[in-house]
Amino acid sequence: MSTVPTRAPARAHHPTGQPPRAGRRRGKRERHWPAYVFLSPWMIGAVVLTLVPMAVSLYLSFTDYNLFDPPRWVGLRNYTEMLTEDPRYWRSVGTTLLYVVIAVPLKLALALGAAMLLKNLGRGRAFYRSAFYAPSLLGASMSIALVWRALFNDGGSVSHVLDTVGIHTGGWVGNPHLAVYAVVLLTAWQFGAPMVIFLAGLQQIPSDLYEAAALDGAGRWRQFASVTVPMLSPVVFFNLVLETIQSFQVFTPAFAISGGDGGPADSTMFYTLYLYERGFTASHMGYAAAMAWLLLIAIGAVTLILFKTSRSWVFYADEEGR
């Protein structure tokens, strides 16, 4: 009995002549190319204006470069000189840390206080919100910093006001013990941006929580500590991270108030101001590049610490599902 040979079934072919999976990949690429076209200006800018300068800066940090002669490789000499042989570097680190520790909490406290006042304000809230936010737009300018220097200078308005109430401090700008606090107050005056963020967070807290706390006999301070602070903790954390990063990079107020030299007696020699002096005044660009990279590492370390410690005090409403 003979058997008829059977032919293997023919493989299905994709209409385009390609396997289905390859066709899907090609279709996905065809759908995504407009996105890459629109993203290309940002991608080119990120590479040309950020990544390439960072790579060049990292290379220069290991060289002796004065902006005029070709860079000369010196290895880790800039870093060792900075950490072991330069007392002004460590003074700038101490001044910057003092500024961050005082200015950031003060600015956030003023921002939260103003947001609490504006939360329940009916008429005129838009006007006051704009008025409180205006210093955040103006305070970073050199002109406002120069006005601030005039206010806190010897014979300025601040010293006259304090003299009338019996507090004789003289000019803050010329006092090594008070000059840095003039910069702190200028920063704290610019609390408008975190205030707006706090106000948005306060408006998202359910009123039922305050009503339940009031039924339990909680007063205003107890409600603030038990309801407002925990529910607002993610917003506090967000503002804290942003303001800390910005405070480490303060430059314009310090430059204007000190006259660009960090005086008196290096009391306003902030880190970025010293970086500017070494790089553009003394033409030690390699040294300045090394300072910039250590600042980047320090900011990254502080930010990492804030994120690690936030687990113990930041409360998220959807924490159980995270």
From TrEMBL:
It comes from the Bacteria. Gene3D superfamilies: MetI-like. Its main location: membrane. Residues 1-28 are annotated as: Disordered. It is a multi-pass membrane protein. The chain crosses the membrane at residues 35-62, 97-118, 130-151, 178-202, 223-242, 285-307. The keyword rRNA-binding does not apply. Residues 93-306 form the ABC transmembrane type-1 domain. CDD domains: TM_PBP2. It is found in: Cell membrane. Pfam families: BPD_transp_1. Keywords: Cell membrane, Membrane, Transmembrane, Transmembrane helix, Transport. Belongs to the binding-protein-dependent transport system permease family. This is Sugar ABC transporter permease.
